[in-house]
Amino acid sequence: MARYTKQEAKEWARETLKGQWTTLTTPFTSDNRVDEAGLRRNIRHIRRLGTRGAGCCWGMGEFWSLSREERIQIMDIVADEARGQWPIGAHVTHTSLPEMLALARHAEDAGFDLLIVAPPYIAAKTDDQVIEWVRLLADHTSLGIMFYNSPQFNIVVSPQNLQRMCQIPNVVGVKEASFNQQLSIETHLLAGKNAVISTPDEWIFWKAKELGFQQQVMFANTSDWRFDTPECNHYVQFIEKATQGNLDEQFYDKHLRRLNELSDAWWTRTVDKFNGTLPVAMVKYWGELMGLAGGPVRAPLPSLTEEEKSRLKRELEPLKPRPPRPAAVAASTSAVASGRAGWITGNNNFASGMLLMVSVQDVEEALEAERGGADVVDVKNLQEALVGSGHPSIVRQVRAQIPADKHVSVTLGVVPNQPGTVAMAVHAAALLNATSVKVGFCTTEYDRAVEILQQSRRALEGSNTKLVGSLFADNHLYPGGLDPHLMVRLAKEGQCDGFLVDTLTKDGRNLFDFLSETELREMVFQGKQLGLSTALSGHLKIDDLDELARINPDIVGVRGAVCADGDRGRAVAWQSVARFKHEVDRRKSGELPVHTGAAAAAASGNGHSGGWAVVDGRGKSCAGVIAALTQQVSTDPRSFVEAILGDALNIYDVMLWAERAGHKLLTQRKEPDGSLRVLIQP
After folding, report:
1. Does residue 438 carry a catalytic annotation?
2. In this predicted model, what pLDDT tens digit does every residue of 588-621 receive, in sequence order?
3. Which CATH superfamily is domain 6-246 in?
4. Which of 365, 400, 607, 654 could form a disulfide with 360 if both were Cys (CB 3.0 to 4.6 A apart)?
């Protein structure tokens, strides 16, 4: 959300418009409506790429085909997903002045940071007309304005007149997309010192290096979500470096050149085929091949033929980015494995919960935990007040000793109220190839905690390390302690991948002495619906496993219960870890039932199955299963959904999810492999 005056707009733009910005397409359903669920899913996917900001209702967003109500609907969706935490721009171009101003007012009211405007493409035939048109918009808004210079609007403004336009106080810059390299270069040289000039193509960085100017933002294109995945964001990494003056040509050649050549070939072929029309259909289908929602284009835009789709799919498949495979890890303390485990990915496909996490203080304990079957080895320092972080050398040694496909997390403990300091520690955890890093708060004010987590999220850009926010159930014992009931909200607003609820007290009380099973279950269930990983810890023992199993977090964290003689001050013992793991698995398999009542009885019922959509939950966390089911029914509420479930605890939670959401459980069938097939009618 913009926090600047009209006179401060140019300074704001210099500080904010940096790195990679994206252009959002508008996904449509088969009946030609705005696909709200698809758009929200796309935005969340793109944010995970590390993209700095986004624009909506641009040319690629088919703005000319949208009604005023649809443009406002899209603005509201984008603003809701950004929540003031991700810079966003609204394209308000229109041939009607009242309509353009109405769209601008709505964007400002909705919390947009920036406006984008192009010429009114019917009556404007001279540069002077265009400049006065932009001035009219600038007079009626306090938001900064980026001008969009493109032949798509039937007039291209000259570099000299773009320089004049940028003298309007809140015109902060130009997206120079004329496809005329000389015009782009001249605009940078003439106006680049006083305004933000961006050419949305990579060639500009080579010219900038040659001619001595610097483009600070890629504003904006579709290459991030067409070339990258959350696990391999090579394009975003390249743009981040290039916009800071580091043109990494070897990185570009290795990861991006062939993708970009394929894109250029398809772009040129499609544009030429339809006499200069933007290749929206090609871009949307490319996005679908990368896992995004696309859908049809609106008339009169032409669709790709089935043959073209088949060819693009065939040519793109071998060039798609692939996450690095885990490398063989030598027992050396000088290096860590280059491959990271794929934990808490976009599918939330990080093995069947509940996972067992064991806290360790050194390499010897880590090896004991791994030998006993721990799913996650968590490095922390119990000697520091209120729990602290292990030394980097210990984390490095543990990561080197534990197989690359196993999870090694880092606990920072209770962090100071200093976003930069915490972000640096989080960044260090990523450099050490930690699977996740936990950032805990005790007496920090809520808004400050959100800020610290958001800065930590930025520090993880370009890495696979996941961010886990943490509150302590006994925070109320400390003056000004942050309410643990805010955990889900904090994790969501702090842009975390998951959360942990733990305890700090060392007086013998544990998690359930401060929060009830019901409170914890509700907290965990809300997290699952948001697709967050959920973890509980705090002096837990085997005797607590029935309650934990009913809550069914993705991760259960222990230390004292798996130390020799149950004494957390002694070392972790593999036999104790193995015993605890065995008891967890008995509850996951249903050997030890922990539920009573109708839902538990239903979990063992028989029947027949069928349906139009299938969600395979075998080997997935409960958060992954419920997130997939929620996404499926929100995207297509008229189809039956068949869920395949293999974990007894997950079965119960799916029953509860369906009951709470008002869905009907039609049939159930046990399979020979022990899994249960459940047919759900939304």
Report:
1. yes
2. 877 777 775 434 433 333 333 334 577 777 766 7
3. Aldolase class I (3.20.20.70)
4. 365
